[in-house]
What we know:
Chain A is α/β, with parallel strands linked by helices.
Amino acid sequence: MIRFQHVYKEYPRTGVALQDVSLFVAKGEFVFLTGPSGAGKSSLLKLVYMEELPTKGDMWVSGVRAKGVKRGDVAKLRRKLGVVFQDFRLLEDRTAEANVAFALEVIDTPRAAIPAKVARALAQVGLSAKATSLPSEMSGGEQQRVAIARALVNDPFVLIADEPTGNLDERATRGVFQLLRDINASGTAVMMATHNLDLVRRAGYRTIEINRGQVVFDSADADAKKKLENLA
Amino acid sequence: MRLALRETIIGFRRAPMLSVLSITTIAFSLFAFGLFSLVAVNIRKTLRDVESRVEIRAFLADGTSVETVSAAMSDIGAFPEVSRVEYVSPDSALARARSELGEFKDVFESAFLPASIDVRMRDGHRDPTAVRAVASRIKSFEFVDDVRYGEDWVDKLYRIRNIATAAGVILGLAFAAVAIIIIGATIRMAVMARAREISIMRLVGATDGFIRRPFLIEGFLKGILGGGLALLLTWIASVVISRNFVQTEFFSRGLASLGILGGALIGLLGSSLSVGRHLRKI
């Protein structure tokens, strides 16, 4: 589903962000990306939704190959994945339902189908009662739920979450994380970058640690090694 | 399209001052263009009036018979470059000279002016080459003593006309370029004001064409509104000039519509360049 093959990413001004990253994320998997600030977690996620393209190496996301990809293909790919950020990125002058509907409208979804899809997405994140509220009238946790509803409304195969709980208190963090688990349980893969090691430890999902642009630990490899050792 | 229109209206509503400012800026840059065009239109009109007076006068030898003159006149009248042929008898020539010379009219006491055939040229055939060719053909008639057509001033007139046309084209292009740059800059401000929205659109899979649409509509509308306002200002200027200084001719309805359409196209081009540049960056 998502495959990185010896991927390097270098920025002209800040230098190397990722080096020799190879990984595979299967359908329906939940993957944590951890590591210190500036390690390259966000760069890796940007590559997944093709906001950036590799400087060297190659990668495939849902069959779309980075090498030679066209802008139109990237737009089509993004309709199949959802992205949420630490700062929510909502349109401040539009209600929760208008923010979610926006994601459908800009990809020319038939008008008649929009209200039902929006209502379903808001119900999924537990915000039906706040459908007509503006972001400024909602808590951080609620705004992040609206952002998740917007990411989910197109039924993505993967949800990319870049520090989604970074701006939230502990209670809201637990709520949003539970929501991501539920989404994953319904079959959508989740790739989540986080600093919250407590959350990572308790959840027990696959964890990829990145440091200075390199994958320094992948629990999937560790598990595989452990299995191999046990077999031996 | 419905969504693009809605986004355009939201854009106008969200930053009304910016919208008013950009329409006014566009209007003033097009107003400068309009004023210049007004001058150009009036120069052309004056030149056309002068041009219509381009005339060849063929002086006839004494004693030329009426039949000969009449036959020559129908020959000359059949030239494709000629619009009108008129016989001026010695008496008429004298009366005309007297009326043209005003207080010196008494100088002409007896009829010593020769008869002539006055030839008017058709529009589009008043350039020095055509006039010279017709004059030399007329001169080849045996009974024509001399031909006058103001060779010097026909040349000068055409030089002025060519300079005015070249200046018109160059200044017109310069004003249009300034208008495009200004419209581009105002749309750029609108693009920057909606950068967050654009990034969200791109994030959820909107195509570049889709993102561009509301901005193109915005540029188009601003161009039309700015063009309309510029036309109004130019009309006011033309009325003020006509009342206080010199009678001016305003644009014809077709030219005025063309001006507004030009404003709209400039708006479209300016916004297309602006959004395109922004999209290439993100």
